[in-house]
Amino acid sequence: MPSENDAETREAGDGVRADRIAGALLGVHAGDALGATLEFSSWSAIREQYPYGLRDIIGGGPFGWPAGHATDDTDLTRAVLLAYLHADAGTDVVKSAAEHMRRWLDGDWPGRERGSRPRDIGGATLAGLERYRRCRDPRAAGAGEGHAGNGSLMRCIPTALAVADRARRISESIEISAVTHDDERAVTACAAYNEIAAALVTGLPPGQCAAIGLATARELGSDEVAAAIAAGQVLSLALISGSGDIPFAGAASGYVLDSLSLAVAAVLDERPLAEVLVDVARIGNDSDTNAAIAGGLLGARDGSTAIPGRWTTVLQFAAEFTMAGRVLARRSRRPVQGGGQTRCYCPQGAG
Q1: Which tens digits make up the pLDDT trace of 186-200?
Q2: Angle at 284 between CA 247 and CA 234, to 5 degrees
Q3: Which whole number is the average pLDDT over 101-123?
């Protein structure tokens, strides 16, 4: 018979896991909201206005966001999250995620007028969701090869937080990415990133988690994704953000592998979460998405309590994401649900 101490230990473990899950979701949201002010700005322009980086969530930016309002990064993360929160044993979560993303596209969303278009949406995301709207098959959508932006990496973390089984987690990471971003680099980046995030939630050291992501990329046969993770393992965010010497041909302006490298560098940076996110955002260009992707891993590493309270209090979905952390942590002790039609991934060398 389980002892009272066993129950207390299990409850404490659930609390830590809930904090890390909520931290991952709120980390995406906070990074998104912080970076939205700086989106499309160059490193030099940001340095001139904010010499030590933007340290508060103030809104504005090219789309005039209210402080703390979700942009497409957080909204689409929420769309994937809702698919898991609403799943039962018969749910095809890939189809459900696609439906929630379509609803967002059509304005059926908090803070939006039904029928209104999103204030900001990436080209591959729009192309994939328009194709899905026509065919209603999430596995026949996608923008096609060559569209290797970071628009699926920015929203993929709920799969890492909700799915305990590794094979299913990798399959769903790939298939949910492919609803809009079916380029091999994008789908593999999502799978590797989610293996890092899932390991962080269990409390493994960040270096070991990055190694798990690297091994996943190699297992899936992507030299490019593996190289991006390896690059992130040796990058110094403090040096990049302080000097403006950005080591990417596209200057971190939306390529999925640039964002992946920055996220790996962020989670290996031993400074407090807020200091790291400020530096990711002040690199410039695709500031909101780079910071959202890095924020997800940092939040999974450090938990929601590491996010400054002055940030969390203004986030549009703070309460909802915090509650989701509790729900998913409780579910982690139950049999895995959902995944009605998800196909198994095939590692390199498999049939």
Answers
A1: 999 999 999 999 999
A2: 35
A3: 93
Cα separations in angstroms, 128 against 22, 92, 141: 28, 18, 5
Domain residues of the chain, as ranges? 24-331
91: left (phi over 0), alpha (psi -120 to 50) or beta: beta
User: How does DSSP assign 86-129, residue by residue?
Assistant: T--TT--HHHHHHHHHHHHHTT-STTS-TTPPPSS--HHHHHHH
* Alpha carbon distance 335, 316 (integer Å): 31
CA distances to 256, 265, 276, 297, 310 from 206, rounded to whole Å, are: 21, 10, 14, 9, 26
pLDDT at 76 exceeding the cut of 90? yes
What does the alpha-carbon distance between residue 13 and residue 103 come to, in Å, rounded to a whole number? 35
d(CA 264, CA 262): 5
Q: Retrieve residue 28's tokens.
A: 């995406």
Three-state SS at 185? helix
Closest-CA residue to 192 (of 162, 163, 228, 165) = 228
Q: Residue 343: what pLDDT?
A: 41
**Which pLDDT tens digit goes with each residue over 192-237?**
999 999 999 999 999 999 999 999 999 999 999 999 999 999 999 9
> Token pair 């190694």 is at which residue?
211
**What is the residue-averaged pLDDT of the chain?**
92
Topology, domain 24-331: ADP-ribosylglycohydrolase fold (1.10.4080)
Cβ 279 vs Cβ 237: under 8 Å:
yes
For residue 220, give both structure tokens.
């899936």
- The model's pTM: 0.92
Opening angle at CA 348, ends 344 and 351, nearest 5: 60
